[in-house]
TrEMBL record:
InterPro entries: Beta-prop_IP5PC_F, WD40/YVTN_repeat-like_dom_sf, WD40_PAC1, WD40_repeat_dom_sf, WD40_rpt, WDR86-like, Znf_CCCH, Znf_CCCH_sf. Keywords: DNA-binding, Metal-binding, Repeat, WD repeat, Zinc, Zinc-finger. The lineage of its organism: Eukaryota, Viridiplantae, Streptophyta, Embryophyta, Tracheophyta. Residues 37-63, 127-154 form the C3H1-type domain. This is C3H1-type domain-containing protein. The keyword Signal does not apply. Gene3D superfamilies: YVTN repeat-like/Quinoprotein amine dehydrogenase. GO terms for molecular function: DNA binding; zinc ion binding. The keyword Acyltransferase does not apply. Pfam families: Beta-prop_IP5PC_F, WD40, zf-CCCH. WD repeats lie at residues 165-206, 288-327. SMART domains: WD40, ZnF_C3H1.
Length: 454
């Protein structure tokens, strides 16, 4: 991630902050203090009552709420309106793709991205410089509360770090919580799967696979692990251990839908298996070969399979016929992750965008909103906060995870790591998990946001 040192030249740092936000004059010019503070974040130290900088490059006042009819940032507008859904019936689907039931809630905005996005400072609660203090990471920052960089792995309200799970030596590529199990499973490119006790956080066992874990999912009591040239299938209730052969190269992504198991592979194929209850085995059912390069993301929703590829395209497949019914070519780089939410498909790419897709009257998908970031985007995951409001988590290749309120796409908070976060998984009771490139797994918990009292 983008670390910075807390011992650098303050004037130069202020200039960098000022110039990044569009200023053209010296950050030390007190006559331009009001101009300097326009469109910036609220000072973290001012909120804590201990800011001693003048001029301070951040706001010493609370930001006003975004206007109801604010224009979408960057000129990227919504083609279609969006009516929010009742949080009690709406649901996210990550790899499995369960559709929610449409509803109506007047508390939600009626269009994607309507409120201010990244850069206006409205979304993130807190105004510290969004960099983790390098000295704090090393365990010896001597500035304490006066340090202007973060002494935390997160920024924002509504979630907190519960614990860290240490043991993997390389990037975490999959996290799974099988139904009915009290164990957490994590897969890594260090060629192992680790089993953790959910109560104690202790590692209960290490499974050596002899190949890098490209992905891992759970469906009911089953765990599926993608490795080079094979998919491993384990049933945590019966201790069944199966090996599904057929993939060529690494298996990058897996999903279950319509009683079928789909695997996206390095050679651009999507292999399909169907479970045979009589033989208690998965039997080959089909091979889908329309992509020209590796398939790295799969999701199921609305009786469709959606596949994202290194060829920059998303293909839409009928789950009934297993035929490709549409190819989406709006991304300009690898489509890294897909998510179904209600009637929408969300996709993120190394082209630095999240795209929201909705069906037209003809049934074809089109982009209804595009959200732009400063870095390539890696993984999407959806959840609801403790108030039932939808939250989108999106990791980027600057080693951070953005938390967005939906449908406004205003930034609610941010999670930082030493290296890229490639795996995000939600759990019960507001829990969610992140795994980064160092092999570290962090457990996070949703918490109630304190409300102001008069």
């Amino acid at each position: 991630m983008d670390f910075d040192y807390n011992g650098g030249n303050t004037t130069n740092t202020n200039k960098r902050v000022f110039n990044r936000l569009g200023g053209g004059q010296s950050a030390n010019d007190t006559s331009n203090h009001n101009h300097l503070q326009q469109n910036q974040k609220v000072c973290y130290h001012w909120r804590a009552g201990r800011c001693n900088r003048f001029p301070c490059p951040f706001l010493h006042r609370e930001l006003s709420a975004p206007p109801t009819h604010a224009a979408v940032n960057g000129g990227v507008g919504a083609k279609r309106g969006f009516v929010g859904n009742d949080s009690s019936s709406s649901s996210f689907s990550g790899r499995r793709g369960n559709n929610g039931t449409n509803g109506n809630n007047s508390n939600y905005s009626n269009s994607w991205g309507r409120f201010g996005n990244k850069g206006d400072g409205r979304g993130v609660r807190g105004g510290s410089v969004e960099k983790v203090c390098t000295y704090w990471v090393q365990g010896h920052c001597n500035r304490g509360d006066t340090c202007r960089f973060l002494h935390s792995w997160s920024l924002g309200d509504g979630f907190s770090l519960l614990t860290q799970l240490e043991g993997h030596q390389k990037v975490i590529s999959g996290i799974a919580l099988p139904s009915g199990s009290d164990k957490l499973y994590t897969g890594s490119k260090d060629e192992t799967v680790r089993v953790w006790d959910c109560q104690s956080g202790q590692c209960m066992g290490v499974i050596n696979l002899g190949g890098e874990v490209g992905c891992m999912i759970s469906e009911g009591p089953w765990i599926f692990v993608g490795t080079p040239n094979v998919v491993k299938a384990w049933n945590t209730q019966t201790n069944t251990d199966l090996s599904l052969t057929g993939p060529v190269g690494q298996v990058y992504t897996l999903v279950v839908g319509n009683d079928l198991l789909f695997a996206g592979t390095q050679d651009g194929s999507i292999l399909v298996w169907k479970f045979n209850a009589a033989t208690y085995n998965f039997e080959p059912a089909a091979s889908l070969n329309d992509h020209k390069m590796a398939v790295v993301s799969l999701v199921v929703g609305a009786n469709r399979l959606y596949s994202g590829s290194m060829d920059h395209s998303i293909k839409v497949w009928s789950l009934e016929t297993l035929q490709c019914v549409q190819t989406l070519k709006d991304h300009t780089s690898v489509v890294m992750s897909l998510l179904c939410w209600e009637q929408f498909l969300l996709s993120c790419s190394l082209d630095q965008t999240i795209k929201v897709w909705a069906a037209t009257e003809s049934g074809n998908l089109e982009v209804t909103y595009t959200h732009k970031e400063e870095h390539g985007l890696l993984t999407l995951c959806g959840m609801h906060d403790l108030e039932g409001k939808p939250i989108l988590l999106c990791s980027s290749n600057d080693s951070s995870v953005h938390l967005f309120d939906l449908p406004s796409f205003s930034e609610k908070g941010k999670i930082f790591a030493k290296q890229e976060i490639r795996a995000i998984q939600t759990g019960p009771g507001g829990l969610f998990f992140t795994g980064d490139g160092t092999g570290q797994v962090r457990v996070w918990n949703s918490v109630a946001v304190p409300t102001a009292t008069t």
